[in-house]
Amino acid sequence: MRRELRGESRTEGTPIRAPAGSIQSGPTPGRPLASGNRGAVSSVVWVVLLVMPAALVVAAPSLSFHSTLLPTDRSAPIVPGVGVPAAAVVNWSDVTPGSPSARSLMHLAYDPAGAGRILTFGGDAGAGVYLNDLWAFDGASWSSLTPTHTPAARVAYGLAYDTADRQMVLFGGAPGVGTRLNDTWTFANGSWSQVLTSPAPSARDGPGLAYDSTTRTVILFGGSDSNGTLLQDTWSYSGGHWAKLPVATAPSARSVMALVDDPGRHGLLLFGGDGASGALGDTCIFANGSWSALTTSGTVPPARWSAGATFDTATTRVVLFGGTSGSGGLGDTWAFANRSWTRVSSTLNPPARYGDAMAYDPNLGESVLFGGYQYPAHFHDTWQLGSNGWSRLVSPARDSSPGMAYDGRDGYALLFGGYRSAYGISSSTWAYAGHAWRQIPTSASPSPRGSPMMAYDAGDHEVVLFGGLTAAGPASDTWAYRGGVWTLLAPSASPPARYGGMMAYDAADGYVVLFGGYSYPNHFADTWAFSNGTWTQLASLSSPSARSLSAMTYDPAGKDVVLFGGDAGNGVYLNDTWTFQAGNWTSAATSGATPGVRAAARLACDPARGACFLFGGSSSAGTPLNDTWVWKASGWKHLALSSSPSPRSGPGMVYDRSLGAVLLFGGSGTSSTLLGDTWVLG
Predict the structure, then answer these.
(1) What residue segments make up the domains of the chain, in order of their start?
(2) What is the per-residue pLDDT across 202-242, written as a single tens digit (0 to 9) for each?
C-alpha cells in the first residue's frame, strides 16, 4: 500500500494505523449513584446523555427472570454450613469467548484440514505495532494457536487456502515502514514452514491472493513494492513452486484489491483496489489463464480498496463489505452473482471500516467478518452474514446494568441494553445459546437504555421489559420479546417511569412482579403485577421500604419472590431480606450470617439445586464486591469458592436452563471499569 489516506495522517508508504494514544474514552459508568446528591447527579446525567453518552456515570440494576420450569429436588441432602445439595458442588467458571486483539490489514481463510476452523494471522494493531500471532475461529469463539515457528510480524500480506495441497499459503506483506517482503510460508498440521523457491514474486504488500478451483493453483496479482510502485504481474503457486504467468492483458496496476474464487463463473473475481489515480471500481475475471474486464448490470459498488470479500457457498455469490475510497471507511454490503452486483440490506450492520477481512465458514453456513479500522480505532469484533442479514458474534461490548432474562420459549438467555463507556447507552439485543453469544438483528426494539427491568413471563411465553434510563430520562414503556421480535405494548395503565427497579416472574401466583426503582427525586416502594398485557398495582399489608438497585428473583423451592438489599437513598444501603407470596410482602427472619449492605447485586435461583445465589454488588462506600452467597428458607450462607468473577456491580445474571447453571455477564468493576466477561456458576 502506497497511498496517504485523505483526511487521515499517514506517512507515504505506511500501512493504515491509528495514531498512538488516539483512542479516548470518557468517564465510565459503574457504581450506584451516591445517595447524598442523587437528585443533582440524575438531572445532570439526563442532559449528558443527550449531549455525550460516553460521560454517563449512572449504573442502576436491571432485574432478570430465573427459570422456574425445572423440577426442584427439595429432598436432596444439604451440606452442613453450605446449603446446596451435596451432589452438586458449585464453582464459578470463566467461559468468556476469546478474541484476537483489535487489528486491521490481516486476512481470514477457512482451513478444512485444520479441525475445520477459520484462521487469521498478524495485522496492524495501531501505534506502529505489527503482529504475528495466529488465531482460529470455530464458529463460536476464537482461540490462540502457538506453533513453534512463525512468520515475522507483518500487515497487508496475501493469504489463501490451497485446497489441492491441503495447506494455507502466505506471501509477502509489510513488516514496517518502507519495507516489503517476498517470503512464502505454508501452514499445515499445526505448523508453519517457510518455502524457499526461485523464481518468486518480488517483495510487495497488498497483493491479491486466492485459490483458483478451476486450475487448482493459488493465483497472485499485483500489490505495491517498497518504493510505492504499483504492480500488475500475475503468478501461480502449486506444489511448492511459483511460476510467472504470461498473460496478454491484465487489470491496471493496483494493490489491496478484493480477489475471490468464484466457482459459479469458473474463475477468480477481482474488484477495486488502490490504483495510480485513487480508488478503483472495476470488476475483472481471471479464467483459463487470461484476464478480462467484466461488464456488469445493475448498480456497481462505489470505488474502494481494502474491502473484505469472500465467496458465500450457501448463497453461491461473492459478498463484499466495507473498504475505503480514501476518506474514511465504508459500511455497505454488496453481493455479486450472474454478472450483476446487488446492494445487500440488513437490519443490523457492522460499523463502517476498511482493512477488514472475510471468509466463508461451512460449519456456520455463513460468511464471517473480523476486524478493520475506522479512525481513531481498530476493531476486534466478529460478525456473520446469513439469510437474515448481519449479526454480531463472540460477545457483547463491555456493559453495565443491562436487562437480562432467560427466554424459556426460545431457549436462551436474552440480554438487552446497558451502559457503555465509549458508546453511551445500548439498544442491542443478544442471545447466549450453545455456549456462545450472538447478536439478534431486530427491525424494532426499545430505545437505548440502561437499567431496564426484564423478566420472562411464563404465562404469556414472552420476555417483558419495562422502563429504564434513556437519553430523555426514566421511561415507562412496556415491551414484549418473542421469537426474535420486540413489540411495543400499550397497556391501559402503567407504573410511573423509573429505572433501577426489580422484576421477576412469580410462578406461584402466575404474574410478573415489579417492585421499587428510582426517578428523581424519589425512590419507589410500590408493587405492580403484569399479566395478559395489563399492569395492576398491588396493595400489601407490609412492604419493603422505598429503594432501588436491589436483587430479586423467584425461588421455586419456597414458592415465593425473594428480595435483598438495595439503595434507600441518603447514603443508606440495605441488607434486609423480604419474600413475596400470594400478593403480600413478608420480612424474612434470618439467623446467622447475612450478606453485607449493598446495591446493584444480582440474585438467581438454580431450581435443580434448590438454592438461590447472590453475587457481588457495590458497598455503601462504592467498593465493588465479589462474594457469593446462597439463600434457602433457613437463611443465608456464604460460599467460599476457589474461583470467582472479579469484584463488580450491575452485571447481568440469570439461571440458564439450557446450561443448567447460573450465567453472569459484564458489570462495572474497580474504578468503574466496564467488564465484558462471561461466567457460569454450576
Answers:
(1) 43-96+411-681, 108-393
(2) 999 999 999 999 999 999 999 999 999 999 999 999 999 99
With contact defined as beta carbons under 8 Å apart, do 122 and 168 qualify? no
Backbone angles phi and psi of 526, in degrees to 5: -90, 155
**What contacts 196, CB < 8 A, 6 or more positions away?**
none
**Cell for 295?**
461488464
Give the pLDDT band (50/70/90) at residue 332.
Answer: very high
pLDDT recorded at residue 79? 29
Encoded amino acid at 468, one letter: G
C-alpha distances out from residue 333 to 267, 322, 358, 635, Å? 22, 7, 12, 56
Look at residues 604, 628, 632 and name the one whose alpha carbon lies nearest to residue 616. 628
Q: What single string gives the DSSP state of each residue in 374-440?
A: ETTEEEEEEEEEETTEEEEEE-PPS-BS-EEEEETTTTEEEEE--EETTTEE---EEEEETTEEEEP
CATH class of residue range 43-96+411-681: mainly beta
Mean pLDDT, the chain, integer: 87
Q: How far is 479 from 462, CA to CA, in rounded Å?
A: 10
CB 255 within 8 A of CB 222: yes
247-257 confidence digits (pLDDT tens): 999 999 999 99
Return the C-alpha cell found at 514: 415489579
Neighbours of 352 (CB within 10 A): 17
How sure is the predictor about 177, in pLDDT bands with cuts at 50, 70 and 90?
confident
According to the model, what pLDDT value does residue 45 have? 29
* CA distances, 543 to each of 400, 524, 527, 578, 586 (Å): 28, 11, 9, 8, 7
CB distance 29 to 421 below 8 Å: yes
Q: How far apart are CA 209 and CA 65, in angstroms?
A: 50
What is the pLDDT confidence band of residue 423, given thresholds at 50, 70 and 90?
low
Cell numbers 498440521: residue: 189
Find how far residue 242's CA is from the centre of its chain: 41
Are the C-beta atoms of 585 and 607 separated by less than 8 Å?
no
Handedness of CA 53, 57, 58, 63 (dihedral sign): positive
Quick one: cell of 463? 420476555
Contact 607, 70 (CB under 8 A): yes
The pLDDT score that the predictor gives to residue 434 is 86
pTM of structure:
0.75
For 65, 66, 464, 489, 584, the CA distances from 407, given in Å and listed in that order, are 9, 9, 10, 18, 27
* Rounded distance between C-alpha atoms, residue 330 and residue 368, angstroms: 17
User: Which CATH number among 1.10.760.10, 2.30.30.40, 1.10.510.10, 2.120.10.80 corresponds to the domain 108-393?
Assistant: 2.120.10.80
Cβ atoms of residues 584 and 540 within 8 Å: yes
The total number of residues shown for the chain amounts to 682
